[in-house]
Amino acid sequence: MSQRAGIATAVLASLALAALLVFWLQSSARLPVRLVAVGDTSGYRMLEELPPGQDPLERVRASIGESDVFVFNYEGVILDTEAQAVACPVSSHQSTFYTATGIAERLRAGTVSVATLANNHILDCGPDGIDSTIARLQAAGIRTLGAGRDRPSACRPLKLDLRGRKLALLAYLAVPGDGLCAGPDRAGAACFEHCEGPRRIAELAAAGYSVVVALHKHLGPSWTERVHPEHAALVDEVMAAGARIVLGHGAHMPQAVQARGGRLALFGLGNFLFNTDYAMPLEAHRSVLAHLSLEPDQASLRLEPVMLERSGLPYPALPHEGDAILYRIAWLSESFGTTLRVHPDARGSSAQLVVSRHR
């Protein structure tokens, strides 16, 4: 082969490779962004009760691992050592959730793992507890948002670029008063009003981001499957501002789903990995993995039912358990103008849930 022919062949090969790369990039850009979102998660009492080396997510990890982004609401504090727990103040109105550092590595799953921290337990061990929680999670490769040493750091969104798709996550706490809220020079949670939630959501949506908002709601009762009117109004405000997905937390039980104009709100995802010092009601042991698929003009949902053992560890729901979970969510969702269809899951779990109508 002459030198000229060799050069021509190399050029053609390079052009073919470039064309293949462009095709791959275009094809990737058309693929939806896949999120798996779960409910309230805490390492409290987990490490003490687990056998050494056991993975607390081992029975659900395969389902989570298919996601581009895995999002969970971490309730409580991760300390550097168990001895630090003696400095955590005891509350008269709620439990104090803390655990040692080893839990963080066991929570990473999916391509990108995200812990939202805007909740009523992030200050269980004071400002130092916020610092250690963020540090331990990030050291384990888990992104964090929703809390910080001051308001700017707490309110900051998490921006991701996934195959050319821009995704922005925000995490807010809605609670009476401002005792848990980060201030200009005060550590705490990202509170919805203090962070100017509607403005931030609208700005991100206008900039071309698909906005996902994790909303921890404590304006009404917890431990209920019913959506409090103030919580429903707050979710409406978040969706009207431009959020594509709203992930509800704080109720500790699965609640209704609302679909509206290509947007989805899950009012309550229930508990995911959760243990307490007291017996939880049966409904608090029912939960779901929310498989969300984000495309440019729509969002779709599949709910995979899971149950929590007495110890708080999640496992795939048995057929009768899964049906009870999904049919209950479907019934609750009817009052929000959303029909959910339950049918057998080809993967072998008991059922899945698909949005079939919305207003």
Plain-language structure description:
- The protein has 359 residues and is an alpha/beta fold.
- Helix content is 26%, strand content 30%.
- The strands form 5 sheets. Strands 1, 2, 5, 6, 15, 16, 17 and 18 form an 8-stranded mixed sheet that branches.
- Helix 6 runs parallel beside helix 7.
Topology:
Layout: H1 3-30, E1 33-41, H2 46-49, H3 61-64, E2 69-74, E3 77-79, E4 98-100, E5 112-116, H4 126-139, E6 142-145, E7 147-148, H5 151-155, E8 158-162, E9 165-174, E10 188-189, H6 197-206, E11 210-217, H7 229-241, E12 245-249, E13 257-260, E14 263-266, E15 271-273, E16 286-295, E17 298-308, E18 314-316, H8 319-334, E19 339-343, E20 352-357
Parallel strand pairs: 1-2, 1-15, 2-5, 3-4, 5-6, 9-11, 11-12, 12-14
Antiparallel strand pairs: 1-16, 7-10, 8-9, 13-14, 16-17, 17-18, 19-20
List keywords for this structure.
30% strand; six-stranded mixed β-sheet; 359 residues; eight-stranded mixed β-sheet; alpha/beta; single chain; Purple Acid Phosphatase, chain A, domain 2
CATH topology: Purple Acid Phosphatase, chain A, domain 2
Number of strands: 20
CATH class: Alpha Beta
H/E element string?
HEHHEEEEHEEHEEEHEHEEEEEEEHEE
What does the average pLDDT come to? 87
Question: What class would the helix/strand composition place it in?
Answer: alpha/beta
Overall helicity: 25-40%
- Given as residue ranges, the uncertain stretches (5+ residues, pLDDT < 50) are 19-28
Summarize the structure.
The protein is α/β, with parallel strands linked by helices. The protein has helices at 3-30, 46-49, 61-64, 126-139, 151-155, 197-206, 229-241, 319-334, and strands at residues 33-41, 69-74, 77-79, 98-100, 112-116, 142-145, 147-148, 158-162, 165-174, 188-189, 210-217, 245-249, 257-260, 263-266, 271-273, 286-295, 298-308, 314-316, 339-343, 352-357.
